[in-house]
Amino acid sequence: MTTPEAPVTEPTERNEPALDAGERAMLDGWLEYHRETLVWKCSGLSDEQLKRAAVPSSELTLLGLLRHLAEVERWWFVTVFAGGTDEGVYGTDEDPDGDFHFGPEDTHAEALATWRGEVAAARDIAAAHVLDDLSAGTARGGQHFNLRWIYTHMIEEYARHNGHADLLREAIDGATGA
5-51: per-residue pLDDT in tens? Predict the structure, then answer.
């Protein structure tokens, strides 16, 4: 029998986005704020708790959300914007939603390290470009995305999933907070 992993605890302080920043700093600030919020919502729970689908009728889990957002970071910054190969982090041809499917060997520590790696790659790519630069990859209609659009989409993606994370965390241990 294996012993459960100790919960990974992260600081609960987040950097509030500046109220008077320029456009790029504002977008960076809000994306970082939402990234930090997700890490916070997953902090201090056991692997078992993070794997729990805590809201009836939904299979969403906090570990699944963390893994999903690692996939999303790679997809939008590495694959679409930079034109990298379409290699999923957790998803496969057989299981495209592999980010939400995990086994007993999958841990928060591994998912967090993977997510941090994908965020670091995204930051590096974004730092080398201006907001008007266009993506190598295209939308279904053949249009290219500018970096501004990707930032805005990523903020929206995190905000939506952080709402899910709020509900899951409250259902798991009663913790609430913005």
Answer: 555 555 567 888 999 999 999 999 999 999 999 999 999 999 999 99
* Residues 6 or more apart in contact with residue 52 via CB below 8 angstroms: 61, 62, 168, 172
CA 122 from chain centre, in angstroms, equals 11
Output the CA–CA distances (angstroms, integers) from residue 106 to 2, 14, 67, 153, in the order listed.
13, 27, 10, 28
Please give the structure tokens belonging to residue 155: 């903020």
Q: What is the mean pLDDT of the chain?
A: 92
Q: How far apart are CA 137 and CA 51, in angstroms?
A: 33
**Strands of 25-152, DSSP E:** 134-138, 144-146
175's CB contacts (< 8 A; 6+ apart) are 169
Can you give the pTM of this predicted structure? Answer: 0.91
Report domain extents, the chain. 24-42+58-88+107-173
Strands (E), 30-148: 134-138, 144-146
CA dist 98 and 62 (Å) reads 14
| CATH class of the domain comprising 24-42+58-88+107-173 | mainly alpha
111 versus 87: which is more confidently predicted?
A: 111
